Amino acid sequence: IKKIKKILESSNPDFNQAVNIRDKKRRFQEVWGVCKDKNICSNEVPKDDGEYEPGNKAPKNSHGGCGNSQPKIRQTALQLWAQFEQKDEENNKV
Fold it and tell me: Which residue among 5, 18, 63, 91 is least enclosed by CB atoms within 10 Å?
């Protein structure tokens, strides 16, 4: 979750809003809800909408995602389990 958290905290406004919740249990549920759908560490495509016009702010640097798939993490008591989905060359689940 650390990698996904770092990616989302810089680019996702829903994640930023969830992190600012004071109640610990509710904050965890909100952060978990935002992070659970993130399966791939993806790169962001830069936008060229008036990038070089005078008066514009410098564009944000992307996090430079690696493109690797992220595991599904489950917790049982004091153990954490990670499940990776294996895909063959044609992106079919094995």
Answer: 91
50 close to 56: Cβ distance less than 8 angstroms: yes
Say what the pTM is: 0.51
Give 31-94 as a DSSP string.
HHHHHTT--B-PPPPPP-TTTTSTTPPPPPPP-----PBPPEEEEETTEEEEEPPPB-TTS-B-
Residue 90 lies in a domain: no
Tokens 């935002």 belong to which residue?
A: 34
Number of structural domains the chain divides into: 1
Q: 12 by DSSP, 3-state: which?
A: coil
Walking along the chain (94 residues) 10 residues at a time, the average pLDDT comes out as 60 81 91 80 61 62 70 80 76 62
